[in-house]
Design goal:
Pfam families: RNHCP. By secondary structure, this protein is an alpha+beta fold. The chain has four helices and six strands; from the N terminus they run ααββββββαα. Strand 4 and strand 5 form a beta hairpin.
Length: 141
């Protein structure tokens, strides 16, 4: 085992400072994943189904014993305009946020973004009423 592999295996904070270039297969959908194309040095979710694994307690520490699948439940926009995916662990329920990657499935991202609008939680009649009352406050677009 060379020096870099030893660091990767035994240094708990290795992935905080170093890129993860390992290829892997998504445990949720079976998609083969490579780090190239992500637009980042830290690939942390599947670009096909947007699922991740619960391996960190803090970003990059690989200290979680859970190992559950983190499913995407929503998106949010950071202050600088960058989108991030909100994940929830199927096993323990922990919530986390991961920035989107350049090669993420755009249809899945839009479906996540539209989820609150198309869910039964919001009554469509009430939503139309709210939008019509907002039109007097300026353009919606």
């Amino acid at each position: 085992m060379n020096r870099e592999n030893k660091r990767r295996k035994y240094d708990k904070n290795y992935y905080k400072k170093n890129p993860c270039t390992d290829s892997f297969t998504c445990r949720n959908c079976g998609w083969p994943i490579v780090s190239a194309g992500a637009g980042s040095n830290h690939r942390n979710h599947c670009p096909n189904c947007l699922c991740s694994l619960h391996v960190d307690n803090e970003p990059g520490d690989r200290a979680s014993d859970c190992g559950g699948i983190m499913e995407p439940i929503g998106v949010w926009v950071r202050g600088d305009g960058e989108w991030a995916i909100i994940h929830r662990c199927r096993r323990c329920g922990k919530l986390s946020s991961n920035r989107i990657a350049a090669d993420d499935n755009p249809m899945k991202l839009m479906a996540l973004a539209m989820k609150p609008v198309v869910s039964d939680f919001l009554d469509r009649g009430r939503l139309k009423e709210m939008l019509s009352s907002m039109q007097s406050q300026g353009d919606l677009i």
